[in-house]
Amino acid sequence: MIQRLTLxxxxxWHLHLRDGAMLRxxxxxxxxxxxxAIIMPNLVxxxxxxxxxxxxxxxxxxxxxxxxxxxxxxxLYLTEETDADDVAAxxxxxxxxxxxxxxxxxxxxxxxxxxxxxRVRGVLExxxxxxLPLCVHGEVTDPAVDIFDREAVFIDRxxxxxxxxxxxxxxxMEHITTARAADYVRSVPAGLAATITTHHLxxxxxxxxxGGIKPHYYCLPVAKREEHRxxxxxxxxxxxxxxFLGTDSAPHTDPAKLQACGCAGCFTAPNTMPILAQVxxxxxxxxxxxxxxxxxGPAFYGLPxxxxxxTLERGTxxxxxxxxxxxxxxxxxxxxxxLHWRVT
Length: 344
Ligand code: NCD
Ligand code: ZN
What we know:
This protein is α/β, with parallel strands linked by helices. It has one domain (4-343): TIM Barrel, CATH 3.20.20. Helices cover 34% and strands 17% of the residues. It has eleven helices and 13 strands. α3 runs parallel beside α4 (121-130). The longest helix has 16 residues, at 150-165. N-carbamoyl-L-aspartate is lined by residues 16, 42, 107-108, 137, 219-220, 248, 250, 264-265. The site of N-carbamoyl-L-aspartate has 11 residues, from loops.
């Protein structure tokens, strides 16, 4: 049995760091295991312009723990008013690594997202020209579409038409939750990739709803049936370069989650690497963990992999059930079983 595992330092290709006290409390957990992360722009108000991203990046850098060289890879939140020149300048200066598309109303803080896709076509065409990737929250918001079908319907109604209209646009379908999405990504030879979260490799919808409602397992896109969880595990552990880690670690305080209308999001930054080591070991794919966490993402984004290393060893990790923030406690995602890998 392997006792130690050394990987190139992982990156997180989809992360919510929030702002203020929450940022200061959660950032050290990502910075401890990840060298870089794609930073989601869904603050209130969102990070829309290059000026917003410059200011947010400075706040993140100021919140890094002493000695950390964690690199935030900034994104802009696409709105129907987004200025293509501002996006291009932010890309040219190295400020941003991607632009994020939220269908209006799809998830937490997405009210400023896109309702009319024809209004963002100019920006998308410019992004295709300059090779700037679009990260997509792939769910339709049509109230007539069942929440468990929103990802599959998004592929047909939005993603496929968008890719046909702007074929050279590089797209990351984020936090995929269905076999359909994994198959769709595999059906496209180049220019399309997907991130997979930690929690969607662990839970299915029964974990949320059977035997009492579990708000800490509620996230968007919502976890689907077991067959989909198994399809995601197969994709993540396959070594296929089109799939890579985006934790979607999305902290909310317990009072914000544990109420009649609770927030969506699982906080997985502290225990993602121990959970993933276990998932990959259970799937007989420990030798492919590094591709998923540390190689496939940089390759898609055209960045070098990290030249530092992270070592995991067999043993019980020391992970708190909750972390304290000045805004209140945040519960860490509970995989529901004891973990037996820890980061050294
Ligand atoms: C995210 C959040 O809380 O910002 N929530 C979630 O359930 N994943 C938003 C998102 O990525 O959809
Ligand atoms: Zn997210």
